[in-house]
Amino acid sequence: MHAVDCTAIQKSFGTGEARVDALRETDFVARFGELTFIAGPSGCGKTTLISVVAGLLDADAGNLRVLGAQMGELSERKRLAFRRENVGFVFQQYNLLPALTAVENVAVPLLVAGVRRREAIDRAAVLLERVDLGSRLAALPSQLSGGQQQRVALARALIHDPKLVVCDEPTAALDHKTGDAVMTMLATHALSEDRAVIVVTHDSRMLRFAHRIAHMDDGRIVRTETRPIDKEAA
Amino acid sequence: MTFVALRMLTGDRAKYLGLVFAIAFCTFLLENQTSIFAGILKRTGSQIADVTDASVWVMDPKTEYFEQTKPLKETDLTRVRGVEGVAWAVRLFKGNPVAKTESGKFAVTFMIGIDDATLVGAPRKMLMGRWEDLRAPNSVVVDYAGYRLLYPGEPYRLGRAIELNDRRVTIVGISDPGAPFVSLPVMHARYTEAVQFQGRERKQLSYVLAQPVAGVTPEELCARITKSTGLRARTTSEFRWDSVKYYLKNTGIPVNFGITITIALIVGTVVAGQTFYLFTVDNLRQFGTLKAMGVANAKLIGMILLQALLVGAIGFAIGTGMEALFVEIFIRKVATRGLVLLWQSVALTGACIFFVVLLASLLSIRRVLVLEAAAVFRG
């Protein structure tokens, strides 16, 4: 079983002349234990694809199985629970809550899942220590550098130990060195038999971290290349 | 998620304080205008409320409010006394003679003539002197605001002489009655002297004050007096409301205050509502992120309502505090004495603020509900 298995997925926006077909019978696979990249030009449908995969958007047609669940058959309530328990998100603009400190931001997925605040904060602090931000627990996002913010966002995505992590341009706003550090953390997380990481990126420098690269154009996966998994490099 | 909602609310101090003070000033404005309005209306019946000894007022059948008097015949007093259920009945005079001080300063006054024998009709509060001193010939008790008007900047002093209708009259007391509708000095004298101070007219009995015997309610006594004498009889409370209603119906006061209160409500609603709505719109990305993480719409609604109600409660409390302080300060000023912060005004304003906050919340909630979680991936 694959972590994500999409077959002939279709998704369009708008109607009539304004209709845009973002996904055209797209087939896509992401395997457990792999870091899968989706690459392609702007407007080719990458973000729409990960939105559908993560259960944020409904596909108009096609078959979508994520972590063994048929997404089309899940009710809204079950889909929320599915996201809450199984999916971690990393956004290009970090999307940290500006009023919360670093450790509180990381704790949010646990709070959403109903974990007690004290316990959630303790667990978040431990994870921030692991990403070398132990000294910035009480810092607000505005007091952190871009790289630090993305590490906080990454810790937030991983705090509830999700089986699927979806990242949208996670290194776009980072310098090369910081981007490398973030990708290394993601690759480390992916290297587990029950986990998968999907990364949408324009950043060709980061493609070397990929185990699989799905090249997308005009709403379709046009080519998929696989690379050997180098666990030491990761 | 309560913690997250509260931190989102208070995280941006400027926005948070802007929200709180928008609601606080809206609250202050609404309570302030309704308080001033209530204070003015209360003043229309002050002289009625000052009479605490008697519970029934008897007057000419055409009398609509306190200021509007058509004198009764002296025999009407006897007729009222003859009605079954009347424990006692006394005369009350109301006139407007001109008082002149030794320095030549003069003012139209509010002269109340109270029963010679019992002094029924006198207000309770005295700042200097005793009501009994009115029994001395040519004596009056003047209210403190009137005293300040006649003797500006001078300390209270008894024994000063004033001229009323060519009579030399001595101030024997300084009282603290309810503030009259028009800021005239309020003077009390014995009935037989008050009518002399006014100047002789054919009929001078303004009102008869009566008290029912035990077991007869003021309302019952009013009905009996009206039936027996053909005169109008009202309880103190009814007569006070008659005066309030007369001013409401026949003056521009309610319209003017109504306009101000309506504008305050609209401005308050727009400012507070828009500020809160914009606060939510500014936080849409954050709500979208929470949605993506699996926070249900019901929880997001709860967060927005919590933020709105908290901001509303704090703003309302601060605004009410500001109004209480305003009343506390201005109630001590002569010109604005009688100002009152009614619990009804606070409750009504609270309801308005709740409505404003709820309306703003609903608009904000709508924005969050229609927000697509996938929007977080867009820039």
Describe the structure.
The complex is a heterodimer of chains A (234) and B (379). Chain A is α/β, with parallel strands linked by helices and 234 residues long. Chain A contains six helices and ten strands; from the N terminus they run E-E-E-H-E-E-H-E-H-H-H-E-H-E-E-E. In chain A, strand 1 and strand 2 (20-30) form a beta hairpin. Chain B has 379 residues and is an alpha+beta fold. Helices cover 52% and strands 17% of the residues of chain B. Chain B has helices spanning 2-11, 13-43, 46-50, 74-81, 144-150, 191-198, 218-229, 236-250, 253-282, 284-292, 297-330, 343-370, and strands spanning 56-59, 86-95, 98-101, 106-108, 110-114, 126-129, 139-143, 161-164, 167-175, 186-190, 207-212, 232-235. In chain B, strands 1, 2, 3, 4, 5, 6, 7, 8, 9, 10, 11 and 12 form a twelve-stranded mixed sheet that branches. In chain B, strand 8 and strand 9 (167-175) form a beta hairpin. The longest helix of chain B has 34 residues, at 297-330. Chain B is elongated. Chain B starts with a helix and ends in a 9-residue tail after the last helix. In chain B, 44% of the residues are buried.
